[in-house]
Design goal:
Number of helices: 26
Helix content: 55-70%
Structural class: mainly alpha
Number of strands: 6
Strand content: under 5%
Largest sheet: 2 strands, antiparallel
Distance between the termini: 42 Å
Strand order of the largest sheet: 1-2
C-alpha cells in the first residue's frame, strides 16, 4: 500500500483541481453565470461583472460570497449562500431587498457603539445590513469625510475602521445606482405612473415617449417661444434622475456601439441616457439591461434569459468579441481559484514532509515532493493566467509580487529537495508557498488586484527585467532564512539535527545567499537604469531604492563575514534569519511609509503583522544564540555498558552534534 500512496495522494488532489475546472451547472432558472460573464470597464480595464462583485464583497465583508442568514449558524444548520454574481444582480435590480443582506463587516466594538449596533458575543454578530446602518449613515459620512483628510499613520484603530466602513458603504451605494436609480422620487412616480416604480424597462419606455416632446419644449423655452410646461418638467425630472445615475455609477456598463469607435469608449448607463437627449436613441445595451432588470424583478426567468442571450449576441455582432472573450476567461479564472487550491496543497505537503522527519518514512517524503510539484503546477498556471489577462509580466503590484515571491521560493525549495531528498526543501517550499499566498490573499482585500499600472510601471520590458529579477532575489533571501529557521528549530527542540544534516543545511544557506546577492544586485542596477529612463536620474535615495540597496549590502556582509571567518555555521544561520527582517522591511515596510515614488500598495493595517513577524524572527535568532548544551541535538548519550575505550568514543562521536 505504501508503494502506491505517493501516487494516490497527488491523484486525489489532482482530481479535486480538475473537478474545479468545470463550472458548476446553474442551480437557478436564471442564467446568472452568463450575466456574470458580461464585460464592463472599471479601474481602467475590461473585466466581467463577476469580478466587480467579488472585489466589492472583499472590501465589504472580506469574502467573495454572501451568507443570506448570517448569525444563524448551528452545528446542524448551515446558512444559505449566494454567489457574487447573483448578489450583484440583486443589488442592481432589487436594491430594496439587497439592503437587508448582512453585508458590512465591523469588528471594532467602539465603532459598533458609535453606530448603536449590537455586539453581544452570544449573537455571533460581525456583519450588518445597510438597513441597520441607515439611521446612522449621516454620522458615518461626517466622520468618514473628516478622517479621509487625515494622515493614515496617525489614525487610531477606531478611525481606520470608520474610514474602511465609510468607503465600503460608498462602493455599495455606487453599485446600487449603476444600472437604475435606486431611490425613487415620489413626484417622479406620481408623474409617470408606472405599474412598478422600479420597473426600469417600463421607465425607459416612458422616457422614449416623453423624449421628443420634452426636447422640443426645451428648444422652444430657449427661444422664448410658447412651450408645453408639462413636457419640459417631465424631461427635467428624467434629466435629474439620470444625472444622479451618471454621477454615482461604479462600473461603466455600456460599450461602444460601433466597431469603429474607440474600444475604451465605455460609458455609464446614466451618461448614455443623458447623451440620448441629443440623438433621441437609447443604446441597445441599456435596453437589454433594462429587460433583464424588469424580468428579474417580476420573477420571469424566461424573459431574463432571452435578454441575456440577446445581449450576448449583440456584443458578438458589434466587434466586441475580444472584450467578451477576456471577460469569459477572467470569469473562469475566478471559479478556478488556483492560488486558493495551491494553499491547501502546500499545507498538506508541509505536514507530510514534517512527519517524514520523525519516522524516516520515504513514502511520506515522496508524497510531499509530488504534492509540491502539483501545487507548483497550479501556482504556475495561476501566474500565467494572470499574465495573459493583464498582458503584463508577473509582477505589477504588491499582490502579484507576493504570489511571485512564493513561486520563486517554491521552485528553490523543490530544487533543494530534488538534490538532498531529506524533506528540508519540501518543508521550506510548503511553508513559504503557504505564507506568501496568505499574504497575497490579505492584500486582495483592498479590491482589484489587476488594476491598471501606475504610469512609471507601464513598461513591459522593465517589468520583465528589473522587477522580476529583484523579486527572485527577495524570494531566495526568504528561502535561506527559512532554512536557517529549520536548522535552529530542529537543533533546539528535537534530536534530528545530525552533524551531516547541519552541514547540508549550512551548504544550502550559503549557496542561496550567493544566489540572493547576485539577483538582488543585478535587479537593483536594472532598477537604476529604469529610473534613469523614467525619471531622469539613476539613483535618488528613495525609500524603496534604499531598501533594495540594504538587501544587497546585507547579503554582501554575510558572505564577507563567512569568508573572513567572522562567523561559522550558526553565525551564518542566524544572519540568514536576520535577512528575513531586512527583506520584509524592504518589501513591505517602505510601502507603509507612504512616501516616495515607489510607495504603491500602501498597507498601514499590515504594520502589526510586520512587527509580529520581526519579533518572531528575533525570538528564533535568540534561540540560535543559546549555548549548545541547551540544544537537544547536542546532548551526548552515555557510553553503552558493553562497549569501552575506543569503541565507546566512536559510538559517542556518531551522536548528532551540530557544528558551532
Amino acid at each position: 500500500m505504501k508503494k502506491w500512496l505517493p501516487w494516490i495522494l497527488p491523484a486525489v488532489f489532482a482530481a479535486w483541481i480538475i473537478g474545479g475546472l468545470r463550472i458548476a451547472p446553474e442551480k437557478s432558472p436564471y442564467q446568472i453565470q452568463d450575466f456574470g460573464r458580461f464585460p464592463v470597464l472599471l479601474n481602467g480595464r475590461v473585466q466581467p461583472l463577476d469580478t466587480v462583485a467579488r472585489n466589492a464583497l472583499l472590501v465589504m465583508r472580506s469574502k467573495q460570497t454572501v451568507l443570506l442568514d448570517e448569525g444563524s449558524w448551528t452545528p446542524l444548520r448551515f446558512p444559505k449562500s449566494m454567489s457574487a454574481s447573483q448578489w450583484l444582480l440583486e443589488v442592481l435590480t432589487r436594491p430594496e431587498k439587497a439592503d437587508d443582506v448582512k453585508l458590512f463587516r465591523i469588528d471594532n466594538p467602539e465603532l459598533l457603539d458609535m453606530l448603536h449596533l449590537p455586539h453581544d458575543r452570544a449573537e455571533f454578530r460581525k456583519y450588518f445590513s445597510l438597513h441597520e446602518l441607515l439611521p446612522h449613515l449621516s454620522e458615518l459620512e461626517t466622520q468618514g469625510r473628516r478622517l479621509k483628510q487625515a494622515e493614515a499613520q496617525t489614525m487610531t484603530p477606531l478611525e481606520k475602521q470608520t474610514v474602511k466602513l465609510y468607503e465600503a458603504v460608498i462602493i455599495y451605494n455606487r453599485l446600487r445606482n449603476s444600472l437604475q436609480p435606486a431611490m425613487q422620487d415620489g413626484q417622479f412616480v406620481a408623474m409617470v405612473h408606472p405599474q412598478d416604480p422600479n420597473d426600469f424597462a417600463e421607465e425607459l419606455s416612458l422616457f422614449q415617449k416623453a423624449l421628443p416632446a420634452g426636447v422640443e419644449a426645451a428648444h422652444k423655452f430657449e427661444k422664448k417661444e410658447a412651450y408645453d410646461e408639462k413636457d419640459l418638467k417631465t424631461l427635467q425630472m428624467f434629466f435629474e434622475r439620470y444625472g444622479m445615475l451618471a454621477e454615482w455609477s461604479y462600473p461603466l456598463m455600456v460599450p461602444p456601439a460601433h466597431p469603429e469607435q474607440n474600444r475604451d469608449g465605455w460609458t455609464s448607463v446614466g451618461t448614455n441616457l443623458l447623451q440620448s437627449l441629443g440623438n433621441h436613441e437609447i443604446h441597445p445595451a441599456v435596453n437589454f439591461y433594462a429587460q433583464m432588470s424588469s424580468a428579474y424583478r417580476h420573477e420571469n426567468p424566461q424573459a431574463f434569459n432571452q435578454a441575456v442571450d440577446g445581449y450576448r449576441q449583440w456584443l458578438g455582432s458589434h466587434g466586441l468579441t475580444k472584450e467578451v472573450g477576456k471577460a469569459k476567461a477572467e470569469f473562469f479564472f475566478n471559479a478556478y481559484e488556483p492560488f486558493y487550491k495551491s494553499i491547501n496543497i502546500y499545507v498538506f505537503a508541509f505536514i507530510l514532509a514534517c512527519l517524514s522527519w520523525f519516522n524516516s518514512s520515504k513514502w511520506l517524503n515522496r508524497s510531499a515532493f509530488r504534492l509540491l510539484l502539483l501545487a507548483l503546477a497550479v501556482h504556475t498556471s495561476g501566474l500565467i493566467f494572470r499574465m495573459v489577462l493583464q498582458g503584463r509580466p508577473p509582477v505589477t503590484n504588491l499582490y502579484s509580487s507576493a504570489i511571485f515571491v512564493g513561486w520563486g521560493a517554491v521552485v528553490l525549495g523543490i530544487i533543494l529537495e530534488r538534490i538532498y531528498r531529506d524533506g528540508i526543501g519540501a518543508v521550506t517550499a510548503g511553508t513559504v508557498g503557504f505564507i506568501t499566498l496568505i499574504i497575497a490573499h490579505n492584500l486582495s482585500m483592498d479590491g482589484d488586484t489587476m488594476e491598471m499600472l501606475r504610469a512609471v510601471l507601464d513598461t513591459n520590458f522593465w517589468l520583465a527585467t528589473h522587477v522580476v529579477v529583484i523579486t527572485l532575489g527577495y524570494a531566495s533571501v526568504f528561502v535561506s532564512g527559512f532554512l536557517g529557521i529549520i536548522y535552529i528549530m530542529r537543533g533546539v527542540f528535537t534530536k534530528t539535527l545530525t552533524a551531516s544534516t547541519a552541514k547540508a543545511l549550512t551548504r544550502m544557506v550559503y549557496g542561496i545567499v550567493c544566489f540572493s546577492t547576485l539577483f538582488s544586485f543585478v535587479g537593483t542596477v536594472l532598477g537604476g537604469i529604469w529610473a534613469d529612463q523614467s525619471w531622469g536620474r539613476f539613483w535618488g535615495w528613495d525609500p524603496k531604492e534604499n531598501g533594495a540597496l540594504i538587501i544587497v549590502l546585507w547579503c554582501a556582509i554575510v558572505l564577507h563575514a563567512r569568508w573572513g571567518g567572522l562567523i561559522r555555521e550558526r553565525g551564518l544561520i542566524n544572519c540568514a534569519i536576520f535577512g528575513n527582517i531586512v527583506t520584509s522591511f524592504s518589501w513591505f515596510g517602505v510601502n507603509m511609509l507612504g512616501v516616495g515614488l515607489h510607495a504603491y500598495g500602501f498597507m498601514d493595517q499590515a504594520f502589526k503583522w510586520l512587527i509580529a513577524f520581526v519579533v518572531s524572527q528575533l525570538v528564533i535568532i535568540g534561540l540560535g544564540l543559546l549555548p549548545l548544551h541547551y540544544w537537544k541535538s547536542f546532548k551526548v548519550l552515555k557510553p553503552a555498558p558493553a562497549m569501552g575505550g575506543r569503541k565507546a568514543a566512536t559510538a559517542n562521536s556518531a551522536k548528532p552534534v551540530p557544528a558551532t
